[in-house]
User: Fold this.
Amino acid sequence: MIFDKDGNITIITQEKASVKTLVNNIEQVYDKYKNDHIIVNLSSLDSISLEDIIEFLRISNTHRGDKKSFVVVSDKVDLDAMPDEICVVPTMHEAYDIIEMEDIERDLGF
Assistant:
């Protein structure tokens, strides 16, 4: 698990361990990153299931409830099968775009 910081965005990249392990690790250090937007980059993993994505739902709901963006990046999932409650995009560029759009929406009071 690699943590990178880009302004007010924390990028968490998972390379080897299971998604369940990643979620547990994020929950343990969440207080350190709760004031940043979070991008979880799963692009390096070989396969991602819907169940793997659902593991992030609790963290995503908490984070979005605090008016911060939470985006998962993976090009190995069926985006149409993803639940509406979690934001999953295929590229890092799209993750940054989502955060920018959500910031604008928050500024406008949506």
